[in-house]
Amino acid sequence: MLYGIAAATTALLLAAVLTALLRVPALRLGILDRRRRQRPVPLIGGVAVVLATGVVVVAGERTGVAPVGEGVGRLLVAAGAVALLGLVADLRRVKARVIVAGTTVAAASVVPYEETGVPAGLLAVGWIVFVAVAFKTLDHADSLAGTIGVVTAFGVGACAATEVMDGLAVLLSVLAAALTGFLMHNWPPARVGLGACGSLFTGFVLAASAVTTRAGYGLGDSAGVLFPLTAVASADVLLVVLSRRLAGRPLLRGGPDHLAHRLRRLGLTPQGAIVLPAIGAFAGVLVAVLMHIGWTAQSGVFWVAAGTLVVVLLLLRVPVYGARRPVPTQAGRPLSTQAGGPPTQAGKPVSTQVGRSVSAQVSGHLRVRNG
Is the pLDDT of residue 39 over 50? Predict the structure, then answer.
């Protein structure tokens, strides 16, 4: 108990200090969020979270004060590899399939097949990859991915504690503390970004830990617990996929169509667009924990799924892509344009005034990410 408090406090302070120290060299080296236009935001917060989490957990293992066990150690190594892949994506453009493939390999190395079985284990691999990528897409607004990560880490940690998986519970509490230290610099307006390094690492650790905690339970019951733990991240992915499909846009083409973007268009402040999804995440996590310990029926997942679907359908009605630039016409006929000259019709110059298209960007401390 005392070590858990000391470890969490150390991780929080270490992450906060590392984030502040790494910000200046990141600015000088140009490790910046390419989506920013008005102010430079270095993408180095994820490195601080990974280092703080790893240092505290490894120190507890090496000193023998809080041994986490071989399974947790393997999970941390795999998550570190995913974080390294995310760091490469922060430094230069990496195709989505490369990120998915690397995360899949890491996920396949941590699933306990002896307890889940091979078919269920393969499904678990897919779910871990989905959650990791979903947390990457949550990093479209300041502090959103970090806040949801803290809430989810406490929920998964509570589930691990009820299974007497002390090492896993320590890892999750340290991760939650490290994310909290990072959020000191990431609350709107952010001075440092989480980036793919931190968001992939967070999503991977949470999903892999949840799978490990539910290993040995039935597939249906486990799915009923796992979904509410990540309901907000799942809602964001579903919202984006449906929106881009309905608009005829490529799935990998970035746009201001994520969860927080739409909340901002509804009039919420940058802080409100973070707090509201965090409340939703807490509700889902609470249902998941109660189902895991048997204090509520497994049917609770249907209420979470119904609420998620309603939110997605309502937010789909929020316009986000803007209007296309109109084509100049006169008397219902399109105007031709001579090279270097004004629009003409039947060889005669025509005076036109074309309205500007509505900007697709959303004001506030939000960003458009390609995912």
Answer: yes
